[in-house]
Write a structure and sequence with these properties.
Length: 112
């Protein structure tokens, strides 16, 4: 989508602090971090929400989690703990309608 913020970041039209990229996904630092480590892992393919994932997207979803695991190790939170989150729609806190996996760590996290 032309106006989607994350599509624009993926295309390089909007600056971001990119920490990972490959043919399927891009990861960058969240601009409003909720912890010392707060990264977003996004598929290159525009999918608005988890509700819009199709069976043909299963490999991409698995890949997002593999990237999250790799980044947790890279950023040093893999041993003490980190959280991965998909927010789905407004009541869950989704503000950008392009599927994205939050990777959050570096401090003790409470619930919710």
């Amino acid at each position: 989508m032309q106006s989607c913020l994350f599509c624009r970041i993926i295309r390089g039209e909007v600056p971001s602090e990119t920490v990972y990229q490959d043919d399927l996904a891009v990861a960058f630092k969240d601009i409003r971090p909720q912890a010392p480590v707060h990264l977003l892992v996004v598929p290159r393919k525009h999918v608005p929400t988890l509700n819009d994932v199709k069976p043909e997207d299963n490999a991409t979803l698995a890949h997002l989690f593999q990237v999250a695991r790799q980044l947790a190790e890279q950023f040093g939170v893999h041993q003490k703990g980190y959280r991965t989150i998909f927010n789905v729609n407004a009541e869950a806190g989704q503000t950008v309608y392009h599927l994205h996996l939050h990777v959050i760590g570096g401090r003790r996290l409470s619930w919710p």
